[in-house]
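FAD dependent oxidoreductase domain-containing protein (Trichophyton rubrum), 269 aa
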Amino acid sequence: MLARCIERGVQVHNPARAVSTTKDSESGVISEVVIEDTKAHTRRSLPCTNIVFAAGPWTPRAFSSLFPLSKAHIPVLSLSGYSLVFRSPRHTLSQEQEVYGGKSHAVFTTHPQSCGFSPEVFSRTNAEIYLAGLNGLDIPLPEVATDAHSLMTKDKLARVREAARILMGRPQDGLEGENIDDLEVVREALCFRPYIESGLPIVTRLQDSITGTAGRVSGGLFMATGHGPWGISLSLGTGKVMAEMISGMEPSADVSRLGLAADLARSKL
């Protein structure tokens, strides 16, 4: 997907962060965003007509860095989640291609209760299996996503691995005995998702009064965040709606209840 975006003219600045904005001296409309290369520590200005905040759980930080004087509260929390990608001798590449015909499968379960969370299991390409479900709000959000690896703990990784063994390990002969861990671990991970207590994401054009920028009929500042653990599933639809809003078109979906003002009003109830 990234390659296709670049083919269509998208310019990626990485590693970089947005540090400030510049307004047009006459109209008061934002005309540039200043970004900093976090390796070279150099800055450059990028002309812009629209800014989209879609930084997941880092969205509040990104918003505050660009608009430090704004009193708006972005009600996005950080939902951490451990996951495990593995392969099983009982789910081979030939089975994936010949038996399942490229179809994917998902399992949502409360078993085993001894693991203390509700595992979610998904089949992936290349005969890989993804297991997750150990989530929490107690891990501090790191400065950047790549710092997450240093926050992983052995005990929580072991809980995820144990759930995988019980659910997908090799059964012993007969009905007695625990499953044997013969799984090949491909990757262990800790990720952070944008979580909003209301359960509704923010997909909106920000009101000019929130940031103190000059008003205009269309364009300006937009925000798309707060999808919780379903960001991947909802990404394409959200992207389509955001593109329509930025272009001044009628959105394909009704997102009137997903505005920041509406979310702030709900938080006061």
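Helices lie at 2-7, 59-66, 93-99, 154-168, 208-211, 231-246, 260-267. The chain has seven helices and eleven strands. ok done for today
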